[in-house]
C-alpha cells in the first residue's frame, strides 16, 4: 500500500510473514477511509442495475391494496359495521345470481351472462389444468438448469481461487530463503554501518582532543 500518509509502504507475504499488527491494520483502515472520502455520495449510494430490478419487484407488491380495506382500517364508521357483521359495501353479487324476475319469469339477459361467465370460467380452469401444470414444470426445469449452471460457475471460481492461493503460497515459500538471506544481509549492513559510525565518531573525538 502506498499513500500520502507518510508514504508508508507495506509488502505483505501472507504465507511467510508474521500476523499483521494493530498499527498496520489501523493504517490500512485509514487508507480505505481516505479512498472513500474521495467518492461522492451518488457513487457510494449507487446500486447495481440488476439489484435495482430485484428490489423493484419486491417493492411493487404493497401497492395493490384495497381502498375499502384501507378506509375501513382508519374509519370508526366502517369499524362499527365490521364489528356488527354488516359489511363495508362493495359489489353486491346477489344481483347477478337472481336469474328469475320477481314474477317468476326468466331474465334471459342475466341468464345468458351467468351462463357465459360459467362456461368461460370452466374453460379457463380446463386450460389451466392442461397447460398451467406444464408451464410450471417447464419453469421449474429451467430454474433447475440455471441453478446447475450457476453452481458450475461458482465451482470454477472456487477452483480458480484455490489455484491462485496455491500459486501465491508457492511463490511466497520459494522466496522465503532469499527473503531471510536479504533480511540477514540488511541487519549485518545496518550493524556495520552503526559500528563504522561509532568508530568514526571516536576517531573524530580523539583528533579534536589532540
Short description:
Residues 140-174 form a coiled coil. The protein has helices at residues 22-37, 41-45, 49-60, 67-74, 76-83, 94-97, 108-209.
Tell me the fraction of residues in β-strands, as a range.
Answer: under 5%
Uncertain regions spanning at least 5 consecutive residues? 1-10, 51-65
Rg of Cα set: 40 Å
Q: What number is the mean pLDDT?
A: 75
Which sequence of SSEs, written as H and E, runs from N to C? HHHHHHH
The multimeric state of the shown protein is: single chain
Sheet having the most strands: none
The proportion of residues forming helix, as a percent range, comes to over 70%
Helix- and strand-based class? mainly alpha
Distance between the termini: 52 Å
Number of strand segments: 0
General shape:
elongated
Provide a count of the helices. Answer: 7
Explained architecture:
The chain is mainly alpha-helical. Helices cover 74% and strands 0% of the residues. The longest helix has 102 residues. The protein is elongated. It is found in: Nucleus. Belongs to the SPF27 family.
Secondary structure topology:
Layout: H1 22-37, H2 41-45, H3 49-60, H4 67-74, H5 76-83, H6 94-97, H7 108-209
Helix pairs in contact: 4-5
Subcellular location: Nucleus
Keywords: Coiled coil, mRNA processing, mRNA splicing, Nucleus, Spliceosome
Coiled coil: 140-174
Write a concise keyword list for the protein shown above:
coiled coil, single chain, mRNA splicing, mainly alpha, spliceosome, mRNA processing, disordered N terminus, 210 residues, 74% helix, SPF27
